[in-house]
Predict the 3D structure of the following.
Amino acid sequence: MDRSAFSGPAIGLITALTLAATAATAASPFGGLFSAASKAPAAPAAPSLIPQPVSITPAQGAFVLASGAHILVPPNDPQARWIAQYLSDMLKRTRGIELKIGEENGEVTGPAIHLTRGPDAPVGDEAYRLAAAPAGVTVLAANDAGLFYGAVTLLQLATESDGHAGSIPLPALTIDDAPRYPWRGLLLDSVRHFQSPEFVKKLIDDMAVHKLNVLHWHLTDDQGWRLEIKKYPRLTEVGAWRVPAGEAALQDIDPATKKPRLYGGFYTQDQVKDIVAYAAQRHVTIVPEIDMPGHATAAIVAYPWLASTPHPPTAVPSDWGVYPNLYNPDTPTIGFLQDVLTEVIALFPSTYIHVGGDEAVKTQWSAAPTIQAQVQALGLKNDDELQSWMTGRLDAWLDAHGRRLVGWDDILKGGLTPHATVMSWQGPAGAAAAAAQDHDAILAVDPTLYLDHRQNPAPDQPPGRGSLLTLKDIDAFDPAPASLTDEQRGHILGVEGAVWTEHIRTEPRVEFMTFPRTAAIAEIGWSPPGSTETLLARMPAEMARLRDLGVNAADSAFEPLLTSDFDPKTGTVAVTLATESGQGEIRYTTDGAEPTPRSQRYDAPFAVRLPSRVRAATFAGAEPLSHAIERRFDADTVRSRDSHELKTCSGKLDLSLEDDAPVNGPRAVFLVDIQNPCWIYPGAELDGVGAIDAAVGQVPYNFVGAGLGPEVVKFRSPATPEGELEVRLDTCEGPRIAVLPLKPAAANLAVTALPPVAIAPVAGKHDLCFTFTQHALDPLWVIKTINLLPAKAQSRGLGGLFGAGPK
Ligand code: ACM
């Protein structure tokens, strides 16, 4: 196989991209983090396939794919016929091309797509060869998975641009391909927020077209139990339902019960069987996770005898974080867990069954005399060893039933059980430690593979963990670092992206956070090391493909990021545009027109006079890469900043947090550090400023665990019962230049525009520090917008404070 078939053009492309990034960094307002996308993207010389195949050998000519062409399968081969039908359905759905399916019986003689098996097929469970020539396309594989992945590659070749097409020329080439790792996973957290069975199936579809093959389904946790277990009906009758956090949910009374409306849901066993079968057809294995001994509150609320404490909680909680509620390691509870696993293994044919094991803080075990007596009686050193002992019971049980236990890397602490596979989330060290002990490992590391992080700093991003995680960050991740020996590398089963959903409330947002970053996860899981550098150049085709598939993919890598600098002396605003990835060309208008591929190309910061309206979007040639952003500048708004355009004072635990109100309809999103709620408006131009106003919200402080809560988060004392927003000059210890009382906002659970307060004249540029005074932590006051008003300005009210809402 010739891995260097495209090395010439590819190196040229990388050089071009590097040069573009270097040139742009100097002008970047984001301190070199983001690049002005002023360079036309070089079209990749090879097809834009994701994940990048092992080798692509180009040839002359093209196979013209058009309606009426045949897909031919071996006679009496129902699996090949299923794959042919899948390919045909997907091509019809995405490109409007209708193919016919037939058997290789000599009747069809013209150009066709052949799905074939044979002794000369490439070796490997998932390997395939795809050869396209003017006379036909052949996908050759030894087994079903390889044939399926060959069909997926063919589908990708046909969907490099979007929209319906009469015919599509597929370039003549030969692709030889096989995955780097057998485990290419995605974790879906269906506990913190619930997704419908239909959505889970769509996600499986979208995983399959990226050659991802493991859906790690997080089905149980503190905040919910989502899997029907026939022997223990209260797990879902009680454990699947909670009152969401915050006052807004408490006021949302369900007329049927006269109590606050419950949030939740669960999957019936029939639904699970349907989803598992659907996934299996697409070569996706579902690995269920039943978390233990921690992250168990919902089950303990349903069956209090599972608890390790005499006073277990009585309602399924809605706070995020780490709870102390652990299953009791006694015989009845282990019997319960084995009963649950009995039903789990009947539903999920996966060899691997995930039993969690993470974040099991042992305060309840330490405080329980019976449990401490158990530690003594078993001759164990400590509670971590007790966790390992408990995991060991389940490891042996799973082994006896022909399955294998997977646990988070926390299970290393008390000693690995004999058959455990380790899923490393606390950095790659856990995987290395497991491999050194001759155990297999999967990398699902936080933050690099945790897809609940924001993708860019724009105010219109949906909520998520505050620190950014970009395509490039994932692409740069090496699952098998040089520190491992070759033998240890052999223990790395693969990689997994984790879609934790504390902050991902809706299904469209799950898609937004999952795609296109999943393309990078697919790439590090499938493609040969060192072959992924062109990922960004392949993204325009990926984005077109995702549009065709109806995926609400994030355009965050390409969205224009606007920063502005107002000069009161000239009355002009310097506007800087950049994108997170540096890909594509930013085009903009200042006359209110929608930006098009023919609009003015952004090359360098430009100035506009007040009032002005700047609109900008990013393109790859004629193809849109982003939605259009818009910013209006006038005397009243030119110095407005959304919380996402401010800096948090210490950036310890930044969240882009969604409001709890209104219960229905769009909610504001605030950037806030939940350990230190304090914001800086850097370099605020104060010349001519006569007043400050702010839009503020109040959110539930629903976070538990170490480093959180009233012992950690401190406030200055309020002067009025409702508290105040205080503004200080230069530093957070500097002179207080304004105090905005919160009384007008106290009764509003959503966002309130506080009336402006006058400030004494200050010349020049200064940092401003914003903090709230409050007596108690909950609810937490947060900033939506800060606005510096010209002298004698009136309040603007709320209008225009919300940007385009999150998707
Ligand atoms: C985890 O993030 N606690 C696995």
About this structure: The radius of gyration is 28 Å.
